[in-house]
Amino acid sequence: MRVMSADGVELNAEVHGDGDPVLLLHGWPDDADLWRNQVPALTSSGFRVIAPDLRGFGRSGRPAGKDSYHLASAVADVAAVLDAAAAPQAHVVGHDWGAAVAWLAAMLLPDRVRTLTAVSVPHLAAKDTVRQREMAWYQLFFQFEEVAEATLMDDNWAALRELAPGYRDIDRAIAALSRPGALTASLNWYRANLAPRMPGPRPEFPPVTVPALGIWSDGDRYLDGARMRASGDLVKGPWRYAEVKGASHWVPLDAPEELNALLLDWLTSPR
């Protein structure tokens, strides 16, 4: 399915099965194929799965300039994809940047989000920890335009391979990021949303009132689980936390059966 966003970016989305819609949102440096182990489990359980490539990734458009990658634009893309799929409401599941989009969609589009599942990334207002600042060093490195691109690509992408040890889709990701403009587009997510700023009050976010599930894996090298656990304090609706043992940051790839079980139990639980 091809979808035109409100600001003219063409988005690619896969649609599988019939039933209650489940929207799957991937992160960096993936595309909709991240969910290849979840799609069959969901469709065989009676769900219709909608899995877009986020702007800048996969077969979706790569608009120029970092300002095109603000999270607000990605939330507008969520609405456009749901409209194109004739889905007034959907269970929204996100990983990495997709989880950040899912959190914000639950805040800004509560009538469109039936439940929220955030994998790896906590509530956007979760308080930083010292451990998180240590783990997020790469986000600062990604701010250096051209330097980050050249460093990541150098010596057959040695720096990216070192950054993501054990990442099962590394060769696939490198092939995708090697397309013209793809690496810069993907890094613009960091540049648009995580650029260093002066100290001061954190942004105010609308409340999360929909049922929310937070999932974190104890092998995550990039995100501190304490922040996901604390996210429950920022959710006004029903909250559940689950921890996956032995999986890296890429839970959908490392622990597909456990993630599928968590998702199916959550999505079918009475509210």
- How is the main sheet built? 8 strands, mixed
Q: Give the name of the CATH architecture.
A: 3-Layer(aba) Sandwich
Morphology call: globular
Class based on secondary structure composition and strand pairing: alpha/beta
Q: Give the class-level CATH name.
A: Alpha Beta
CATH homologous superfamily assignment: Alpha/Beta hydrolase fold, catalytic domain
H/E element order: EEEHEHEHEHHHHHEHEHH
Strand content: 15-25%
**Are there runs of 5+ residues with pLDDT below 50, and where?**
none
Instruction: Provide mean pLDDT, rounded.
Output: 97
Going across the biggest sheet, name each strand in turn: 1-2-4-3-5-6-7-8
How many strands? 8
Helix content: 25-40%
Rounded to the nearest angstrom, the distance between the terminal CA atoms is 31 Å
Rounded to an integer, what's the Rg over CA atoms? Answer: 17 Å
CATH topology: Rossmann fold
Number of domains: 1
Topology:
Blueprint lengths: L1 E3 L5 E7 L3 E6 L13 H5 L3 E6 L18 H14 L5 E6 L1 H12 L4 E7 L10 H6 L1 H5 L5 H17 L6 H8 L4 H12 L18 E8 L5 H6 L8 E10 L2 H4 L1 H13 L3
Parallel strand pairs: 3-4, 3-5, 5-6, 6-7, 7-8
Antiparallel strand pairs: 1-2, 2-4
Description:
With 271 residues, the chain is of the alpha/beta class. The chain has one domain (2-129, 206-268): Rossmann fold (3-Layer(aba) Sandwich), CATH 3.40.50.1820. It contains eleven helices and eight strands.
Tags for this model:
eight-stranded mixed β-sheet, Rossmann fold, 271 residues, alpha/beta, single chain, 38% helix
